[in-house]
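Async update (no meeting this week)

Hi team, since we skipped the sync, here's where things stand on the single-chain job. The sequence we agreed to prioritize is pasted below, unchanged from the tracker. I ran it this morning and attached the output directly underneath so nobody has to dig for it. Comments welcome in thread, and please keep replies under the output.
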Amino acid sequence: MDEPISAAEQFPARYWHRLDDGRIQCDLCPRDCKLHDGQRGACFVRGRAGGAMVLTTYGRSSGFCIDPIEKKPLNQFYPGSSVLSFGTAGCNLACKFCQNWDISKSRSFDRLQDQASPEAIARSAEMYHCKSVAFTYNDPVIFAEYAMDVADACHARGIKTVAVTAGYIRAEPRRDLFAGMDAANVDLKAFTDEFYVKQTGAHLQPVLDTLCYLKHETNVWLELTTLLIPGLNDSSEEITAMSNWIMQELGPDVPLHFSAFHPDYKLTDIPPTPSEILVRAREIALGAGLNYVYTGNVHYAEGDTTFCPGCGSAVIVRDWYEIEQYHLTADGHCEHCHTRIAGCFEPFTGQFGRQRIPVKISAMA
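Output:
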């Protein structure tokens, strides 16, 4: 049963059209939800009210927190900088292994305890000296109108923007959303359509389309993350196929993060990913020709480190999210051989470190 859509939730949404049978269709993502009046889409936060599509979470957040940029994870986008992170509720995928299920799978808005206008978010990021604002915790695709307005407000103050997304979006909104993003980490959840259908309720090809679009038609800095789940998407064959596709379609300089699964949500009967699986996956990806391959959710120093593809030197040595050594010039060249490291860099004067600082942003201030 859909929850009634109150007047306070009815922010006009984009990306929909009317059907001949009286319903309206959401054109934001490939789910193509078709709705009668009062119904919500699969994401639960976009619905029909008064004959039009509305976004019910505009200006409402599950909370704000200042993180290291490496936590997104983005290892080659202003390393060491801080990012103001926030999300809303709902999701357009149905991942059985969701690590933020209490937010992304929420079917009520009791978690949306913080409210803020786009300008208030941008002003807060500036006040807290954050290099960027990240749309994360749940997917910014489903709150695209809010994310785009926040991005405009941030850019007006010189604040960068980051989308942490599954990339499940149609062409027109994809163009509009990513026009306001400076960086993106896209979850490439697996490399088989069977996995996507059974474990996420979605399909692989639209995600691959988004990756190619971002790499070849935008200036958005792109990194990828794959959560390796034992027995489901961690075979050497699948990792090899994925690495070869990335190499061929995106090139060697798109960083790839292999992250360890831990039992959560609906996949509590699968054990955590052994560290040796992540090490093996990293070796396969490097062997395919990728220059920057990382491991996450495990303590493995080599998998945290950025290596120069020219001379092999360790140019950014990390311990989890903390930078221990930094050997790049101000514009991102290796100090040893002067090879340009792919990414976005500026003079390194210090780091935010391993902190996590929750903050409160006053409503519509």
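Quick observations from my side:
DSSP finds nine helices and 20 strands in the chain.
The first strand starts at residue 11 and ends at 12.
Reply here if anything looks off.
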